[in-house]
What we know:
Helix content of chain A: 40-55%
CATH architecture of the largest domain in chain A: Orthogonal Bundle
Number of helices of chain A: 9
Number of domains of chain A: 2
Oligomer: homotrimer
Strand content of chain A: 5-15%
CATH class of the largest domain in chain A: Mainly Alpha
CATH superfamily of the largest domain in chain A: serine acetyltransferase, domain 1
Structural class of chain A: alpha/beta
Amino acid sequence: MLSEQDLQTIVSDITDNYKNEELFQRNSGYPMPNRDQIIHIIMGLRQIMFPGYFDEEQLEHTVPEYFLGHNLMRIHDTLRSQVYFALLRHSSKEEKARTLQRADDICTQFFQSLCDIQNLLLKDVDAAFNGDPAAKTKEEIIFCYPGLFAIFVYRIAHRFYQLKVPFLPRIMSEYAHDHTGIDINPGATIGEYFFIDHGTGVVIGETTIIGNNVKIYQGVTLGALSTRSGQLLRDVKRHPTIEDDVTIYSSASILGGETVIGKGSVIGGNAFITESVPAGTRVIAKNPDLTFTERGEGNDLFD
Amino acid sequence: MLSEQDLQTIVSDITDNYKNEELFQRNSGYPMPNRDQIIHIIMGLRQIMFPGYFDEEQLEHTVPEYFLGHNLMRIHDTLRSQVYFALLRHSSKEEKARTLQRADDICTQFFQSLCDIQNLLLKDVDAAFNGDPAAKTKEEIIFCYPGLFAIFVYRIAHRFYQLKVPFLPRIMSEYAHDHTGIDINPGATIGEYFFIDHGTGVVIGETTIIGNNVKIYQGVTLGALSTRSGQLLRDVKRHPTIEDDVTIYSSASILGGETVIGKGSVIGGNAFITESVPAGTRVIAKNPDLTFTERGEGNDLFD
Amino acid sequence: MLSEQDLQTIVSDITDNYKNEELFQRNSGYPMPNRDQIIHIIMGLRQIMFPGYFDEEQLEHTVPEYFLGHNLMRIHDTLRSQVYFALLRHSSKEEKARTLQRADDICTQFFQSLCDIQNLLLKDVDAAFNGDPAAKTKEEIIFCYPGLFAIFVYRIAHRFYQLKVPFLPRIMSEYAHDHTGIDINPGATIGEYFFIDHGTGVVIGETTIIGNNVKIYQGVTLGALSTRSGQLLRDVKRHPTIEDDVTIYSSASILGGETVIGKGSVIGGNAFITESVPAGTRVIAKNPDLTFTERGEGNDLFD
């Protein structure tokens, strides 16, 4: 068994870390936002956005106004405290007095966007159904398509990003990333009828701009050219612009803040693009030459 | 705080969406399948398939027949209602009367396949152990290899796909996709001794056919050439055929419904293949030419 | 409903599998390690490593020594039994008597490493903040960056790998793989200030060696050349060595046990490398040639 003396040494060493590390110190007095509560908010909003799909109860046994009013108020209370805690940790002393008022304003503005967000999501469901021959029904898309889930969380997180709430947007988007393998930074700007198929490995950077009716496959990166300068690049447009009606096939990379993919273009699988492409272009990456040999001939690269 | 008037406007706007949107309306009277229940079914089946690995209790303190009988009946009841609800939502008025009988028939046929599915899974465990030098024991593979988990869920979901149950197969396969990054459409046909190593980013499309003793690495896509025609392509063979004894290394893409990878072939990493390959061929993608420069020379593409 | 006779046949067939399959038999008498308990250990250790970020309670209302002492002892008891069970299953008859003593020694050694692991993790947080212009604060990194979570779990799992505990390291690393899409084998050796950005699809093999201040993007594989020989390759160095201050951009593959990427090199996106690279080199994969055509011209490859 761990001896008492060993335990005391371990506790004392780690306590020193606690005392010396700024990241563990400046918390005092103010609670941190709570990741679990923020996930509860996402799940509650999903029940509101897609009534009847993720509820325990059957919706037809209740009045929609009661269901909505009750659920909205429940989410509101959790949201209000999480926004308040998040703001507090980034407030100067003078701002702290006004923080609760700011949290209330933010919550009101957020809830006023909900109906618009729901309308956007219904268009995203249409885009998924029309874009995927394997989709049996729109209901299946709502129930279990990871692309739709990632887009739903993005549309919520993006609103909090616009409202300048710290922590919440990224905690939300990383929750979706965890479950879908799709990493959409909440700062990205994304239009209507957006569809991501399969989705694992997709990365959409913070300053990306995406138009309407865009379709993206697994493994696509909309990224930066270089991040060597680190924090100096903050707020610089580092990621590309994708205009309306563009399709980007699997594992294509489109990099750079000045790169624009023109309206109606199609980017083939594995293409690697660092310069703009005019509207209406089909870009196909020449496949790497293939060598065909009979197995058994000496080569241990792939065997 | 959110004012009463604001709340009323929000509730009223979203309620209008509820009333106008077909996706939220046609539910009435029939419960929806429940995603959580379907996940419980998967987890219960995993305990049956791999006794002693995922149970709370120790198996040696019980009689196998009791353990099995009890667990099967418990799963059966949940499964029966979920299959019933799923069928109901896709039944015409005339069919509804026979739906419970159909659900019962499906459950019986499914349970009658369980022993065969278990035998297949034991072969998949062998394939993983023989194929991966990092595997310490077969038990480790059962405990935590994501490839085996994805294949287990696929073999279950595929059976429900064959039995023409709506919703369940895809909800199951997306649960595995969430946890493993491996996206196997339940419609795919996959033989014995199948092994997926690492697995993140693997996509196996609905009409793919895979033979026996096939090994696949992370990032491999077995996909369609184009999905531009959307729902018009439903039920067309859009994905490739992989014959027996084929190995496909990481991030290779094999596309198209008429593409056949012949028996015993090896496909190298990053290969991009849209045409058939004869049996016994080793296909290596010529690596893209590499440029070597000293760092510090001007180039901001990657730095 | 499933008839009694059908049920009996199914139960009897699967019971035969239970009796005939070694994997389900040799468990008897000794409990298996429990995956849920092992995940509890990880989560408990995360609360200790990052106090105030993942706790229910507010830390300032307690004395750090009490918080730590209490949590350490709680984790210790769970860990001790899991290590004991894991060792038991791999002990010869003669070793079994000494197994509890071995488990105690391992637990003591593990806890004695905790303070060092915490110091490493604080450096990893710095590396992430300095390397990512999208990072708003270091707190955000602790809260939700998947790269940091994967590295945290790796540093814990690697310690148990060093201490030769069966099962636990891989169960831990696959838990992180599940949540992040980042697959770091617990056997890999990784230095200080390690950062993985986005991360989905990253694979770092068992015998990889990584120096200090290395930065890796999504989709990077540090892998083996061929695994055809399966279990015969166990304990052979099959994966590359990455020296200090190297950056590896997205979807690059570096393969082979003798491949060394020299200090300070930069590997561009999509590069495919199977031979060593001298220190201070920038390696850029020539992009595949792109074909630009107007859409509508005949081609169904990507459309």
